[in-house]
Sequence to fold (449 residues):
Amino acid sequence: MNIMADIPMRPAVVLGGVRIPFCRSHTAYAELSNLDMLTAALDGLVDRFALHGVHIDEVVGGAVVTHAKDWNLAREAVIGSKLAPTTPAITMMQACGTSLAGALGLAAKIATGQIECGIALGSDTTSDAPIVFQRKFAQRLVQLSRAKSLGDRAAVFKGFTPAELAPQPPSTSEPRTGLSMGEHCELMAKEWGITREAQDLLAYESHKKAAAAYDEGFMDDLVVPCAGVFRDNNIREDISLEKMAELKPVFDRSGHGTITAANSTPLTDGAATILLASEEWARKQGIPVQAYLSLGRTSAVDFVQGEGLLMAPTVAVSELLRGTGLALQDFDYYEIHEAFAAQVLATLKAWESEDYCRRRLGRSEALGSIDRGKLNVKGSSIAFGHPFAATGARILAVMAKLLHQNGGKRGLISICTAGGMGVAAILEGVATHLLPKAGKPAEIAAGAE
Fold:
């Protein structure tokens, strides 16, 4: 018996998101942990949607940079929040795509009727990064804990040298290549001919649009204060292209590098949340629907063998569009996570390349260009900052509000992640979701051409 055959599919809706201000690492949140920040963001969501003491069917999310004590981070945040303590939570991690991947998983459970509501969330801090001992010394400590006599304890330190005490600092390098994400992105910038000027301009626009989003009040219900901070502290309203041009490249100092501190995301501390539900649950709670989370896709590239580490979103979006009847141009808004300005620009160039789309994406023609005026219209990660696991929830909240506020039809999200992966999603406006779909549901789910 196929028990799923008789279960009707239903839509998953996005009701809105809340986050705390994002702050450059080692600044305002230097004394806060992932749990502190995640709980603050979760309570902000509770306050906004009157969820005090409410049971949520599932909370999913986590952090990328964690301590061993954070193995149950999502559940601990729930217990420390104003939600009902009966709310279960799952701690998961998919690098920078964590909270978007969490939201897609919740949406699938809502669609199949397994749950009625859920919260996806993410938090990260490099101010409170774990510092670990060298493996050899760590093993000595384990042996010491098992030693039963003074002689056994003395034997543990036979051959010990002070060099073993040197801590291993956290690293953003890829284990398979030994290159940092920035070094990988420099390779992408060279491959795709991304100029320093183009990168600086995109970063400049990100800051200007983010500052305008605050000035016009767009961020008012999306951000709640934390630790005396009311606004992201990385946004530079007075940013200057001339001053940006004076900065030296960070990852390639050979004279050919183009990526600088100004056209990259900074190391950031922060947390973000997003509330999803069935239409029926939303009606019962009296919460208006902002958008529908319709489709999602995770893809990966073989960066170890030379593909661009951060090019997986090009694949994820292509695969996401298959079977939907939608072209890349059929969106009112695009949110492409700005890990680096070069990464965004390489993604756009790849979609415009007929050779790449034929060879790598298996398409008969290029996906084409997008209207840049619809891209990251409220700023993105270069301006706001990028607490790795929190970025997906931040972007989802912005996209859902844009569609709700402006009557948009559709929004496309893509996020690149460490490990050569990309997560993409399609959000639909309320009116658009009610229209007949271009493809049959089975074809869309299977990703048929």
The beta strands are 13-19, 23-24, 58-62, 89-91, 117-124, 268-277, 291-300, 333-336, 410-417, 421-428. Confidence is low (pLDDT under 50) at residues 438-449. The longest helix spans residues 196-215. The CA atoms of residues 131 and 169 lie 6 Å apart.
